[in-house]
Amino acid sequence: MLIKNINASICGSDIAVYKHGTGTGHKISIGEKFGHEMVSEVAEVVLEVKDFKVGQRVYPYPVFAANSPQKAGTLGGFTECLLIKNAKLNHNLYLVPEEFSNEVAALTEPFTVATRAVKRAHPKAGENAYVLGARTIGLAAAFAIRHFGCKVMVADRSDYRLDLAKSFGCGVVNTLKDNVKQTQLDCFGKGYSLKENQPNINITIDAIGITDFLQDFLDSQIIDSRFVMVGVDNNPKDINLLGMIFASQSLIGSGGYRPSDVAIVFYILKENQKDISKMVTKIYPWEELVSTIKNATDPEK
Question: For the Alcohol dehydrogenase-like N-terminal domain, which residue ranges apply (predicted)?
Fold first, then answer.
């Protein structure tokens, strides 16, 4: 089956390839297609395909649409058209709800990444969550956390991104300007910890990957607290395992997504489409792809 890409979002891994060359991000080679956050339209179907009709919008589930987990990042979101082999509904292609704009639908993939990270923390209604980073994955995680009934605070260094998070109903803290711990205490109160005067943060979602934030979590020693790592940080770390054991803290890795995440993400997008559409700051024509990715490498743009 042939699909035509309508809109594609730029992932941080795409930026990494642009900035640092092949072998980074999703290890994209020169001359190879890439991009994996997109919404597409069915362009042609063969007689054997019964689940789809020409003109329907679809979300290509990267792992299965590319026929390999290793090639998910090179699916081809930035190409004009793609051939999907063995097209199957709710497997490698999902029908996009009619009420979604193309821009919001193109955020499905990063929202599945964030939702998977949140689910890895096993959130319970009434718990408190702290999200590190107010870019796409961080904000998506904030929406997912609230979906599971948790109170959320988002941390970042950009007032612009924090104002956006605040407009979504999240607590916010600027890690460069604010007294972070006091702001956390004001929002969450004191938690059940092996140390005195620690903010009551049950779940931390790290969408940045900065070692200092991991250490802050370990030092807090909040009983039964969880730290989910979705941001990339390859630096070696010294961890006090005994302290983790005494506080029953958990360090959890989260990579990618699972098919069960798509339905939850569609629900989150449907319930919050007006707010989520604000996350799309600029739209460029396909012909300006190179300059668009270049602009995406500049945090001021």
Answer: 2-88
Q: Domain 111-253, CATH 3.40.50.720 — does that match? A: yes
Owner of token pair 């490498």? 297
Q: What is the reported pTM?
A: 0.94
Contact 40, 6 (CB under 8 A): yes
- 227, 178, 221: which is closest to 199 by C-alpha? 221
Per-residue pLDDT of the chain (301 residues; tens, 9 = 90+): 999 999 999 888 888 788 877 766 666 777 778 889 999 999 999 888 889 999 999 999 999 998 887 778 789 899 999 999 999 999 999 999 999 999 999 999 999 999 999 999 999 999 999 999 999 999 999 999 999 999 999 999 999 999 999 999 999 999 999 999 999 999 999 999 999 999 999 999 999 988 889 999 999 999 999 999 998 777 888 899 999 999 999 999 999 999 999 999 999 999 999 999 999 988 999 889 888 888 888 766 5
Residue 277's CB: how many other CB atoms inside 10 A? 14
Residue at 159: amino acid letter: D
Contacts within 8 Å (CB) and 24+ apart, 209-217: 209/233, 210/132, 211/235, 211/237, 213/132, 214/251, 217/249
Q: How buried is 92 (Cβ within 10 angstroms: 0-12 exposed, 13-18 middle, 19+ buried)?
A: buried
Query: CATH topology for 2-107+280-296?
Result: Quinone Oxidoreductase; Chain A, domain 1 (3.90.180)
Distance CA 207, CA 254 (A): 10
CB < 8 Å & 24+ apart, contacts of 230-237: 230/113, 230/114, 230/117, 230/137, 230/141, 230/205, 230/206, 230/254, 230/255, 231/132, 231/133, 231/137, 231/206, 231/207, 233/209, 235/211, 237/211
